[in-house]
Amino acid sequence: MTTLRSRQQHGLEATASRGDKTKTALTKAPPTNPSVRTASRIGDKRNQFFDLHIFLNYGWIGILLIFLWFWGLYYVIQSTDEKSTKLIEIQHLLRKRGNGAQGKAGGKITSSQVQHSGFDIAGNPAKDMGASAGKYADPDSDGHETIDMREWSRTLPFANPDGGTWAQGFELDPIPISKTTPLKVFVVPHSHCDPGWLKTFDEYYQSQTKHILDTIMESLQQDQRRKFIWAEISFFEKWWNEQSADIQDTVRMLLRNKQFEFVTGGWVQPDEANTDLYAMEVQLQEGHDFIRETFGEEYIPKYGWSIDPFGFSPTMAYLLKKYGFKGMLIQRVHYAVKKELALHRQLEFLWRQTWDDEGEYDMFTHMMPFFSYDVPHSCGPDPEVCCAFDFARLPNVGVDADGIVYTKECPWELKVKPIHQRNVAKRAMVLLDQYRKKASLFRSNVVIAPVGDDFRYRTLAEAQAQFENHQLLFDYLNENIAGVSIQFGTLSEYFDAVIGTFDPPILKGSFFTYADHKEDYWSGYFTSRPFDKALGRRLERTLFAAETMGATKEEMREARRSMSLFQHHDAITGTATDKVMEDYATRMQNAILDIEQWMVKKLTAEHEHLGTLQPCWQSPSSRGMDVNFCNESDQVLLFNPLDTEQLCGDVSVKGRSMGMGTLPCERPGSIPNSIIQFDPLSGLMTHPIKEQWMVWSVNEGGAYLFVPGSLHDYKGIDIQIEMGGFVVKTKNWRRTVIERTVPTNFQGKATFIEFIYETNLRDDEEEWLVRFNTDIQSDGVFHTDLNGFNFDTHYHRPDLPIQAQVYPMPTHASIQDSDRRLTVLSEHSQGTASLEDGTIDVWLDRRLSQGDGRGLEQGVQDNVWTRSKLRVLVETEGYKHGQNEEFDTTPLCKQMWKELNHPLELFGTVKDTVKGFGSTPFHNDFKPSNFNPTQTGDDLSHKQQAYKYEIPIVFMVQKRVDYFKRVIDSLRKSDFPRATVPIIISHDGRIQEMINFVESIQSDFQVIQLFHPYSCIEHPNSFPGDDPSLNKGYEGDSYGNLRDAHVCCLKHHFTWMINEVFELTSVKMAAGFLFMEEDYLVAPTIYETLQTGFGFLDQDNKKDEYFGLTLDISDNFANKIPKKRNQWTTKRFVSGPMTIGRHMFALLQQFSNQYCEFDDYNWDWSMVHLMGKGLLPCKTLVPNEPQVLHIGIDGGLHDHYENSELEEAITIGLQPFHAKLSGQLSEVGRFMDFPKAHDQGYGGWGHPADQEHCKKLFHGQDPKPKQYFHL
Prior knowledge:
Elements: H1 5-8, E1 12-13, E2 25-28, H2 52-58, H3 60-77, H4 81-106, E3 137-139, E4 145-148, H5 149-155, E5 183-192, H6 201-220, E6 228-230, H7 233-240, H8 245-256, E7 260-262, H9 277-294, E8 303-306, H10 314-322, E9 327-330, H11 335-343, E10 348-352, E11 363-367, H12 383-387, H13 424-439, E12 446-454, H14 460-480, E13 484-488, H15 491-498, E14 506-508, E15 515-517, E16 520-521, H16 530-549, H17 557-566, H18 578-606, E17 614-615, E18 617-618, E19 627-628, E20 635-639, E21 646-648, E22 651-653, E23 658-662, E24 677-678, E25 685-687, E26 690-697, E27 710-713, E28 720-722, E29 727-729, E30 733-740, E31 750-759, E32 766-773, E33 781-786, E34 790-795, E35 806-809, E36 812-816, E37 821-826, E38 830-833, E39 839-847, E40 866-875, H19 891-901, E41 905-908, E42 953-957, H20 961-972, E43 983-987, H21 992-1000, E44 1007-1011, H22 1045-1063, E45 1072-1077, E46 1080-1082, H23 1086-1099, E47 1106-1110, E48 1128-1132, E49 1138-1141, H24 1142-1150, H25 1152-1157, H26 1163-1172, E50 1179-1183, E51 1188-1190, H27 1203-1212, E52 1226-1227, H28 1248-1258, ...
Parallel strand pairs: 4-14, 5-12, 5-13, 6-7, 8-9, 9-11, 10-14, 42-43, 42-45, 43-44, 47-50, 48-52
Antiparallel strand pairs: 1-2, 3-4, 10-11, 15-16, 17-41, 18-19, 20-23, 20-41, 21-22, 24-25, 26-27, 26-32, 28-29, 29-30, 30-31, 31-40, 32-39, 33-34, 33-36, 35-38, 36-37, 37-40, 38-39, 44-53, 45-49, 46-51, 47-49, 48-50
Helix pairs in contact: 2-3, 3-4, 6-7, 9-17, 13-14, 16-17, 16-18, 17-18, 22-28
């Protein structure tokens, strides 16, 4: 954690204890004036239970009090309940006098200055206990004490006066306790485990979380008094599946004993600002389903635990209530809000939905009062004292198995010391003093004191230190102090003890925007990493569509969990490291592809006449914008996931049904009688709303914080204005406008305009936004949605900083007056504000080079091209407008929102399957062990004959050894002449397991090993790997994507390999080569087929007419295999294993510049590009009986067929092929048309470095030494 030096200058010290997001412990540094020291500070000999200032001012009273103190201590030693109670009362009186003097001298707020303690000075219950509404709370129509956070946002001062010991609060008095007014304390051990932040989910699990769960289970067994709570089911499920039956039985026993308890039980602790209700509910269901299926319904939690999300939404309270919860605990709330609630003992309340007049969904809520959820800010108001009871900080305790010290000493004067018989009495009383002070903030005498932090309890030594030392303190207090009951507890034990003991106030509204210190508002994360926010929402849309189509939870299990993981409060927020965000994106991209595969399979089965279907919109990489791969001239299948109709052009698709349409569904432009106008110079809209592209230039801020600098218009260079302004393009900012017709079934006048922004933010310290400006007299009132479910109302305040007035916009922002309402709808979450009357600002992206002192320790610089689709609705009728009206959307707006977030799903004929990205576009359940080839002696009759043409097989391999073993086994059983013709194995990286296997087969084959000298595996951080400098100043490929080595590497390998192979002197007599990947089985007659094909091409002088031979007429079952299998066919080249001769390679060399400069990461599609240009022949010769079979689909790149077809092929096996060739060949009609010339490829190969390197390889300018070995 980074220490904030500027804060230290003001007397604030950082906890410096961990890398969590609390970042700084807000406490006063030890003051030099003894008159402001509290009695609970045990480290100052001048001030240990009494104050010298009091003594000097009150003389004989001080002497009497000292006498009384010693008198009370004597009776404590005698351990009598009555006398120990008297001691507490005397100490209470002493502190009353001291605090009173302190308040007068220092001018600080004290608890005696507000009516909230519940007791008078004699310790009797106050008459107004629980009845004080406070300055900003009012009774509702039923007389209930009601707090409206929307009103607070308008009137609360949000000041930050010095609170003394509790820096953001005020000085507290400990409550008196006795047998008649007892204090009950539940100390709740916990460990907050982020499913991704500085490390990925898997990295955290392996390095920390699995050790934490191991430790907990072992430690809890040692003493039945020990308790522990656990929140993140994503981690627990992974750990559970690795455990033995004995450990699993132990966990069940601990659950039965109520020592171990699940809290909330969601897959993660979700963010509540950027999330949508649908995703929030799915992640809760995934956790609960696991608990239910593994342990039983009785272990589903009934209490929520949310300690780290950065602000809170009433939507979560609604959701938990819907699932039968009784209460919830929250932590990160603006310090001024906490203080105001604490002043009136309103930290526990019934959280009510603004639309719920009857309180049906009221949720009892506990708000933790202090700065953080760590130990220093949990036991009481003094973090210095509380930190001294964090026994994980003892020397040599917080050290993991690798010797890494993960806890640090307390940053204050007091240090942690072990508890023993000589100090237990004194230390116990100091701790009790903190509990009593904390109790004064609540209306019951029950205290919850969490003991934990980020990734705590990693070792048994740490667990023992916490449990054993605390138990000694508990035992002393329980045995010696009347009216004290203290124990380890669970969350449910606390709530069960509290709920029903008092009449809580009612609270409405949200807790946004969160600030943890001064003017540090966490409003940046509403926008950080907008691409990933959009990708997460796309996954939601796809999953929703599949479930509407009939997919079950079980079928969507992995996809649901990938989506659930992204709801984590450091994922969708965009507040994790670059590699972690990439990990989330990869998981989501694969989940989308899995869902789409399920949808394609279902649709294909129901619409066989349409042939092979694929989703139209696909992404070339995990962090690349979607591209439409469907031909606009072709018809596409439309699926509507909503229960209301949607349009594609003029085609109406009824709810939850299918239709056929032609793309595009919508085009830029206006409707008849349009009133839209644009500025002729800038192209920006001027009517009916004014559109402004704006930039915040900032000097501070990071992933969490927005810290404004100067606001100015975006300075576009080389602006291209098309269609009169409906399309505007600059280098890094593009915008398309589509005016849409308002459906006739909606009443009221309205204008409906869609803005599609595509941005590529490249300059540091900038935040981009679009401002929609109108003459609406909004009077500073601004409405946003909460999770696409609730609404929040905000009031602009000139006395608050700008960053305090930026809010989350999951889907909606609105302003209005009596004449018009302006609404902006978004398909993904963003930050929004209304900083001037009549305006709505929507953030599009932000890029910052520095961190903001909240633990991430990096900026946000992994920006990519991002698409933000906004629907702007101007309504003049049909909406509510009035001071006492609860804000709500119109039926038209609701429909537009539904269509934006759940649009038509489009399926059609794709240009060809996306290949080569490295992430797995399509998956299959096939496992290599399923294949059992059956061969007969007759099948191998050609093995020993002499062959005219030498054709070695070249394998591109990396690390899939299991597949390659199967491939080699099939080659052994084929007619390949192992004794005379070598196999060439080109390694993309030195994977030792693969090298060992290749060396093991040299007794069976002649083997030539090549090692790609430019392998990305060998050069991960330099070219051709991910050299960060390559993207500096690079504008991106044809689709605006930055260079991604993961995409480029395959083409680099193939290009180097083909040049290397044709130059090998050891095979200079070879007529050509068969190029294959490591996961293609070969048929028994593979070499006979090659001989027959080459003989046809050579004998009939077909070299210039044919590109070469291909060996799978189905192209991985994308096409049906002909019924007449014992013949040859002519078709154009698409992909797959290919055999080319030296003449064709020479032709490829001649046009290598065009190959290298074509912006497509696929080597095969780059060749198709040359064919489309007429530079290479497109025809190939292919046997009707497939002679290769692609088995590695689950990690491959070409899955576009039914699983059943593959399984059938595996069962039957590759068949022999003996057909001879004549002059007459059949042709596959649909594949014999000349390929279209495409000037734009699939991208990923636009960087000059990749193109120039490619050219050097073809031109013999390779600087690297040749690396191959003939075994």
